[in-house]
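Training component of the fellowship. As part of building independent skills, the fellow (R.M.) carried out the full modelling exercise for a liganded target. The chosen ligand was magnesium ion. The inputs are recorded below so that the supervisory panel can assess the work.
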Amino acid sequence: MKNVVVKTQALKKYYQTGNQTVRALDGVDFEVVEREFISIIGKSGSGKSTLLHMIGGLDTPSSGTVIVDGVNLESLNSEQLALFRRRKVGFIFQQYNLIPDLNVYDNIIFPLELDGMQIDKDFIQELLEILNISDKQEMLPAMLSGGEQQRVAIIRALATKPAIILADVN
Ligand SMILES: Nc1ncnc2c1ncn2[C@@H]1O[C@H](COP(=O)(O)OP(=O)(O)OP(=O)(O)O)[C@@H](O)[C@H]1O
Ligand SMILES: [Mg+2]
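Fellow's submitted model of the complex:
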């Protein structure tokens, strides 16, 4: 049997705005096993980004549990959670979140540098070529099209060779 890499149990996230409660997630149970590829489809506002943020440790649930690679995220302090996000998770943000003052290459290696990790230059060049953006390595994000920025965000998420990749794409 394959390892369960992501597991959520009775996961809820309610947002309180004024006197209104938005039930973005209302009891989500699901599992992802090793090497599995899952697409979550749902209409705008249905909670897809919220779910990925909970799994990636970017935000905390109202209740329920998230277990990634055998670790219950609730048991991590903020420092451990930051390490979890940097080492275990590759997150491709819906709005890309590239750093505007850094060129393409520096954006890609930024998470590695933050952590003092070895930079596998061949691997990064290979990714740049596969995603067909190697000729724009020295450009700033503002000079790129939306799709090009998204490809840079994908490479940045892959560059750390994370255990899980969460892609909040549309
Ligand atoms: N910080 C927040 N405060 C209040 N409500 C929020 C917040 N973030 C999200 N929501 C609400 O939670 C619900 C789910 O939002 P979410 O961003 O997860 O949807 P989504 O499925 O990713 O939508 P889209 O396809 O448009 O990206 C929406 O009704 C949204 O308005
Ligand atoms: Mg979204």
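The panel noted the following from the submitted structure. Residues 146-159 form the longest helix (14 residues). The CA atoms of residues 112 and 142 lie 22 Å apart.
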